[in-house]
Structure of Transcriptional regulator:
Amino acid sequence: MADLVLLTPRPAEDTSAGLVLPGLALLPHRVSVLGMDVGTLVSRGDPDLVLVDATADLVQARGVLRSLSALGLGVPVVAVVGEGALAVLDDQWPMDDLVTATASPAELSARLRLALGRGPREAGPAPDPAHGAGGPEEPEAIRVADVVVDEASWTVRAGGRALDLTFKEFELLRYLVQHPGRVVTRDILLQQVWGGDYYGGTRTVDVHIRRLRAKLGPERESLIGTIRGVGYRFTGARTTER
């Protein structure tokens, strides 16, 4: 029986671990449920394993995982994700393993057992501030016109102003900015942003584009052009920033 901590953004009245990961309620482990404040975890003392709830807010969960990696707690960290998130996970998510929220008790038990047996992943050497050597480089910020998409901090600035975007809006804008001048069909955007297992229609893309334009503001909404009957195109020349 292991001592587990679940970090979740759910409100205090909904902090049952079973609401995030139902299979966990059928396992014999001790589970403490905390908010997404890494400082609270540090003051509590080291558990055997940390679970991070990424089912509600992927951007916040990724930030927490990065903070845990930087702290080097010396315990394995496992992310709890929804099925739809599998399409967007990459090596910028520092974790030892992941499990879907719908995993059966048998699968969950096996993943936790393996993670506990392996221990935490080895962190790469700290980068040399003078030469930038050691470990993977942070992704560069992408600029098109005066819109800057910073993958390292998961922020977007337009004209120097930070935009308040949802996760899907961020992913959609990031994909468009990565392919400036290219006409991208709605089907491609659905596949790249929502994942191949998404069953919604292309109207979902249109709704998110409309919201993106509104957040970019009237002076920039024309950056996302509509190609009637086909899809969308982000205009402007792409540059990168350090």
User: Anything to note?
Assistant: The radius of gyration is 20 Å. The chain has two domains: 3-117, 142-234. Confidence is low (pLDDT under 50) at residues 124-137.
